[in-house]
Design a protein that fits this description.
Blueprint (H helix, E strand, L loop, with lengths): L14 E6 L3 H11 L5 E7 L2 H11 L3 E4 L8 H11 L4 E6 L4 H9 L4 E4 L4 H12 L4 E2 L1 H4 L19 H11 L4 H8 L3 H15 L4 H11 L6
Parallel strand pairs: 1-2, 1-3, 3-4, 4-5, 5-6
Helix pairs in contact: 2-3, 7-9, 7-10, 8-9
Length: 224
């Protein structure tokens, strides 16, 4: 039985796809999926961000399927660099994270597609084809994650938090209490709570776990 979204064979120019994921079994599964498509071929793969940059510069694929959680440079940092080094590359984020902040940051970094690993394989195929054509594709599960649907901002226009809000979130992600943050920043506890509320509202974060995930995405937990 053909995989949903597959195109018929013919004199089609194949989409050259690069796979970036730190799990070998995931890459193997993606390779098997994509290479069953008559219009796609996998030209390379890598397990961490710096290697992704090197290999893409060498192979010049049309699309990269990029995991967000990778050792070294994570997917967000890699996407930001690729937007400069390979501006014509179509970036598709493939991840288990459905948080609005993750989607916004990846779109802002230049990703054209965002697909959940929990979704049917047909969603990834649609996203790859869209990215190869310079079009955006958002996993339908994300569109229905909020009442009325959620639409990601245009590239470069992800929700932005202030410097003070960033400081508060970073310290929270490192395990500091509101009282400790207030003392460190010279603020009142009430002001810290206001900054926290404003930042989490802007970013769509729903609790401490989301804040820690966002901190990992931004590299806050590995910075000195």
């Amino acid at each position: 039985m053909p995989i949903p979204g597959a195109q018929s064979s013919g004199a089609l120019e194949r989409i050259r796809v690069f796979l970036a994921d730190d799990h070998e079994t995931v890459r193997q599964g993606l390779r098997l999926l994509l290479e069953t498509q008559s219009d796609m071929e996998v030209v390379g793969e890598a397990a961490e961000g710096s290697t992704v940059l090197e290999r893409i510069a060498e192979l010049k694929p049309d699309v990269v399927v990029l995991d967000i959680s990778m050792p070294g440079l994570n997917g967000l940092a890699t996407a930001r660099l690729l937007r400069t080094t390979a501006p014509d590359l179509g970036i598709v984020a493939l991840t288990r994270y459905r948080d609005d902040a993750y989607v916004s940051e990846m779109v802002s970094a230049g990703a054209l597609g965002y697909v959940l690993k929990q979704s049917p394989s047909s969603e990834l195929l649609r996203a790859v084809r869209a990215a190869a054509s310079g079009e955006s594709y958002l996993d339908p599960r994300l569109k229905s994650s909020e009442p009325g649907g959620w639409i990601p901002p245009p590239a470069g226009r992800a929700p932005r938090i202030t410097k003070r809000e960033t400081q508060v979130l970073r310290l929270m992600s490192l395990g500091h209490s509101n009282k400790e943050i207030a003392a460190q920043l010279g603020l009142s506890v009430k002001t810290v709570e206001v900054h926290k509320t404003n930042a989490t509202r802007k970013l769509g974060l729903r609790g401490r776990i989301d804040i820690v995930r966002y901190a990992v995405l931004q590299g806050w937990l590995t910075e000195p």
